[in-house]
Structures are given as C-alpha cells and as structure tokens.
C-alpha cells in the first residue's frame, strides 16, 4: 500500500502542468484580436471618378457605396435611401471620431449622392467626403 501511494505521488510530480502555457496563448490571442485593424468595405466595387485634387483620408470609418444603378450599400448590405440616416447614426454612435466617405460610381445619379450626404448631416456627421481616384 505504501509503495502504491509513492508511485501515485511520483506520477503526479512528473506530469507537466499546461495551465501557464495556455494562459499565455490566450493572452496573446486576445492581444492580437484587440490590436488588429480591420479593413472596412462598403460591400461593392465602384468606378470612382478621377479628381486632380484628390487627398488621402486616414480615418474613414463609415463607408457608403452608391452603385451605377443607384443602389446604396453600407457594411456589405444594400440599404434603402430612407434607412441611410438610421444606419449612419448607429455607426457614428459606435465610433464618434469617424467620418463618412461616400464611394459613388461615376455613372450614379447626383440626386442619390445628395440624399446620402443630407442623411449623414441629419445624423449629426458633418465630416462627409466623396471618394475619387487620383488622376
């Protein structure tokens, strides 16, 4: 009996405790998830018009795309023009430092672009830009 008890203690001492290693792995995983920057896309590809005075915008957090058939896309979902303001309000509440960038296709109507810009301003976002390509 005494020998059996000694064997159990010896087996338990020889086992490697994996808990500290798992803790380190999970902490690293959380660190990489928190520090990763995710690329935001509006959901469709548009042919932006060219502009000689195009400037790079760094903090564009709310991207809205208007297709050549005047469809409005936010967060990879097609949105009705009446729901644009509510979507912008929601996204702006998540990140108040963000700005709105509208990626309008060069074949889209100006009327739709103006409605989206008005919806952004009605939602309280006054930093609104229209995306173009450099010439």
From TrEMBL:
GO terms for biological process: protein transport. Gene3D superfamilies: 3.30.420.270. GO terms for molecular function: transmembrane transporter activity. Belongs to the ExbD/TolR family. Keywords: Cell membrane, Membrane, Protein transport, Transmembrane, Transmembrane helix, Transport. It is a single-pass membrane protein; Single-pass type II membrane protein. The chain crosses the membrane at residues 20-39. The keyword Membrane applies. It is found in: Cell membrane. It holds the Pfam family ExbD. GO terms for cellular component: plasma membrane. Its main location: membrane. This is Biopolymer transport protein.
